[in-house]
Structures are given as C-alpha cells and as structure tokens.
Write a structure and sequence with these properties.
5-stranded mixed sheet, 7-stranded mixed sheet, binds (2Z)-2-iminopentanedioic acid, alpha/beta, 17 helices, binds NADPH dihydro-nicotinamide-adenine-dinucleotide phosphate
Length: about 450
C-alpha cells in the first residue's frame, strides 16, 4: 500500500469530501509500515474495504415549524464498519453537516470504538438541521420526522446511535421515544438515554471525564500527578467542554477559556464551580451564548475568535473539527503549552499536529482521548442487555480503566526509538490492528 496512491484514488472518487480525505490520510500515514508488513492485508485489499463505508443512507426529513411552514432537511447515516460489533456512533444536528463530515466521523469512530476494547463497529449520522433558536416543539417534531426514516435501519444488534453536536439528552429522548413506538420494542437502540428509561449514569459526563482521565495518564508518565499548577484552555461550551471543565476543577486545575461558534471568553481568575454551574444553565436551560458569561462576570470576550492565543499550559479543544490550525499550534507552543488532548473529533488540522509532534509535546488525538463517551455508551448497551443499572461509582471505575487501557495501547504501539510517545501513531495502529484482524477472519465481504 502506498498512502499517496490510495489517497489519490479516493480523491478521484470523492472529490468534494476534504474532511473525509483528511481523516483517512492521517490514519493511513500512521499504519503504512504495519500494513505493509502483512502482505495478506494487501492481497485482500483490506485498505479500500476499510476506508469506504459499508453503506450510507440519505433521506429527506420534512417537518412543520411553529408558524405552520413546511421545512425540509437532509438526513444521513453512514454505517462504516461492523467487523467487531454493531455500528455505533453519534448523530449530529448542525447546519454544516454533509457527507464529507459524516464520513470522516464514521471512519474515525471505527478505530475509536476498536480502541475501547468493547464490541462496537463504527457509524455516524446526522442532519443539516440547525437547532439554534428552535422551540422545544420544533425540536421534537424534527426528531420524530428524522427517526421515522432512520428508524428503519437501526436496532440493538445492528446500529445503535447516540448524541453528538446539537444532539443531547433531549433529542435522544425524542428520537428514542418515536423509534420505540415504531419498532414495538424496548431494548435500548440508542445510548445517552434518560436515566428513567435505560440511560447509564456517567454517560453525560463520560467524554469530558474520559478526556481528563486520559490526560492524567499522559501527565503521570512525566511525573505530574494533579492539575494544581495547570492553566487550561478549553474550547466549546457544550456537553464535552463543560464536563471536561468540571473534572479539571475536581483535580485542582484552573480553566481560563470556553467558547462557542460566535466567540470565546477569557477569565484569568478561573472559571470556578459557581461560574461553571452558570454555564451549564446558560447552555442547557436558556440555550444562550457564551458572550453572556463575559457580561455577567465582567471578563474578556472576543467575538469571532478562538482561545488558542491565550496563555495556558494545557489545551483541550472540545468544540468541532479543524478548530485549531498551524498558527494556533505555534502560539500554544510559544506560550509554554505542554499538552493538548482532544475532546472534539479531529479539532487539530494536519499542520497543527505537525507542530505538536515536532515539539514533542504530549498530544492525544480525539480517537483516543475522547473515546470515553462511546465507551460509556458501550457500557449502557451492556446494562440494557442485562436489564440492570450500575452505580455511578461502578461506571466511573470502568470508564477510568478503559481510558487507562487505551493509554497503554497507545504507548505500546506509539513509542518511538527516542522514547517519545507518538499517540497519533499509537492510537491508529492499535485501533487498526483489531479491525483488520476481524475483517481478515471474516472473509471477503
Ligand atoms: P454540543 O452540541 O454539546 O457542543 C458543541 C460546542 O461546540 C458548542 O459550544 C458549539 O457552539 C461549538 N461548536 C459547534 N460547531 C462549531 C463550529 N463550527 N465552530 C465553533 N464552535 C462550534 O456538542 P458536544 O459537546 O457533544 O461535541 C463537541 C465535540 O466533541 C464534537 O467534535 C463531537 O464530535 C465530539 N465528541 C462528542 C462526544 C459526545 O459524547 N457528545 C463524544 C466524543 C466526541 P454553538 O453552540 O455556537 O454551536
Ligand atoms: O464521537 C463520538 O464518539 C460520539 N459522539 C459518541 C458516540 C456514541 O455512540 O456514544
């Protein structure tokens, strides 16, 4: 396999899918040597079968807004690979959603899910529906219309969706409710459900907490055992960002930034527990903007900006893809940043990753660092199958040991001759090997 050849072929077939090509290239560059050391992989054309999704559903979603207008959106589900278990991955509602973005997410999800060690394949879905400014009734009608179509293709042992950008507990509740009604079953064909109907404790917190557990594993190898002296820049202010901030505070760190798609806040005094509670309320109850934080607490707000120019020792991008570029990475390095751990999927551009690796900082790619969310989804599936629910402590304990396991796998496959751990390489090789072996064992499909 020659990476450039595969990439050129994919570009020819999918010319308008830059995010998908970006995600594939990153993985292929990491696994090239390992792949080529296994001639049987090439013989069975594993690479193309792994890069191209098993199937994609796309459909029209029609719903009625509060003024009685009939609205139309696109809906999709990319079922990427089910070699190691049912397709599993979130649903994203955002105006930017298109097939390139969902294909990159489903591709990444396949390796991430493999890393968790749980039996889950990879998938992703979503819609270009923009939830901003919509009433609760509009959100419900949209979710119902969306699942009327998607519901035909999912099931507890075939494909299990969950949340992502724009899809949280409220949306999962509406989608699962309609799915259950259509399918006449109650087996938990969604994760991130409410606690009253099969949801798992710790699932809402899991992505953010898991990222910090992963970060602590990296820091411990450098002799750093808590976050007391760390100044932390976080982007985003949604599910992942807020629970990341909560765990940072529990471990004694100082969070100085949060953001949304309009801009970022910088609070040099630190976002403490009370201020963070306000952010939770602002985002989940009022569905307001992060600018309002600056108005309430009198700190700096930069419209249209990103937080990476502020001084910090650790950066945790937790908003969206390609939100941290090469220049941002250089600024972080200049300001003394020692670690970057990704809560979001593919938040750093290839140029940014190059800077991190050149400076040999601790850099954890999303597919390793944010795997705690889907891992806890896997634990929710287990609890649903057993018709049991585990305690907070039990789930949190399992989450911690899964994150430690992922860290160990990265160290095993990513340690370079000089001792530097290249977590990108480690995560990609570890994730790939399990999927590859499963595909080989199952024949040409
Ligand atoms: P939310 O919808 O809860 O929050 C998303 C946050 O990111 C919001 O603050 C949003 O701002 C901001 N954001 C979204 N799009 C953009 C954009 N184009 N530019 C700038 N800011 C943006 O989503 P999550 O917290 O769940 O997801 C955040 C990231 O984490 C995503 O990359 C997701 O794929 C990833 N992830 C999520 C997991 C989960 O369990 N939820 C698991 C693993 C990864 P605004 O409100 O203005 O849109
Ligand atoms: O990107 C992700 O891993 C998620 N959005 C969570 C997927 C899941 O099935 O919990």
């Amino acid at each position: 396999m020659k990476v450039q050849q595969v990439i050129d072929g994919l570009k020819r077939r999918f010319p308008n899918e830059p995010e998908y090509i970006q995600a594939v290239r990153e993985v292929l560059e990491s696994i090239e040597d390992v792949y080529n050391a296994h001639p049987e992989f090439e013989k069975y054309n594993l690479i193309e079968r792994l890069c191209i999704p098993d199937r994609i559903f796309s459909f029209r979603v029609t719903w009625v807004d509060d003024r009685g207008n009939v609205q139309t959106n696109m809906g999709y589900r990319v079922q990427h690979n089910n070699a190691i278990g049912p397709y599993k991955g979130g649903i994203r509602f955002h105006s930017s959603v298109n097939l390139s973005i969902l294909k990159f997410l489903a591709f990444e999800q396949t390796f991430k899910n493999s890393l968790t060690t749980l039996p889950m394949g990879g998938g992703k879905g979503g819609s270009d529906f923009n939830p901003k400014g919509k009433s609760d009734a509009e959100i419900m009608r949209f979710c119902q219309a969306f699942i009327m179509e998607l519901g035909k293709h999912i099931g507890p042992d075939t494909d299990v969706p969950a949340g992502d950008i724009g899809v949280g507990g409220r949306e999962v509740g509406y989608m699962y409710g309609m799915y259950k009604k259509m399918a006449c079953e109650n087996t938990g064909t969604f994760t991130g459900k409410g606690l009253e109907f099969g949801g798992s404790l710790i699932r809402p917190e899991a992505t953010g907490y898991g990222n910090i557990y992963f970060l602590m594993n990296m820091l411990k190898r450098k002799g750093i055992n808590d976050l007391k002296d760390q100044v932390i820049a976080i982007s985003g202010s949604g599910n992942v960002a807020t629970y990341t901030a909560q765990k940072v505070l529990q471990l004694g760190g100082k969070v100085v930034t949060l953001s949304d798609s309009n801009g970022y806040i910088y609070d040099p005094d630190g976002i403490d527990e009370e201020k963070l509670n306000y952010v939770f309320e602002l985002k989940n109850v009022y569905r307001g903007r992060i600018r309002e934080y600056a108005e309430k607490y009198g700190c700096k707000y930069v419209e249209g900006g990103r937080p990476w120019g502020e001084k910090c020792t650790i950066a945790l991008p937790s908003a969206t893809q390609n939100e941290l570029n090469g220049d941002d990475a250089e600024m972080l390095m200049k300001n003394g940043c020692i670690a970057v751990s990704e809560g979001a999927n593919m938040p750093s551009t290839p140029e940014a990753i190059e800077v991190f690796l050149k400076h040999k900082i601790l850099y954890a790619p999303g597919k390793a660092a944010n795997a705690g969310g889907v891992a806890t989804s896997g634990l929710e599936m287990t609890q649903n199958s057993m018709r049991l629910s585990w305690s907070r402590e039990e789930v949190d304990q399992k989450l911690q040991s899964i994150m430690t396991g992922i860290h160990e796998a990265c160290v095993k496959y990513g340690t370079e001759p000089d001792g530097y751990v290249n977590y990108v390489k480690g995560a990609n090789i570890a994730g790939f090997m399990k999927v590859a072996k499963a595909m080989m064992a199952q024949g040409i499909l």
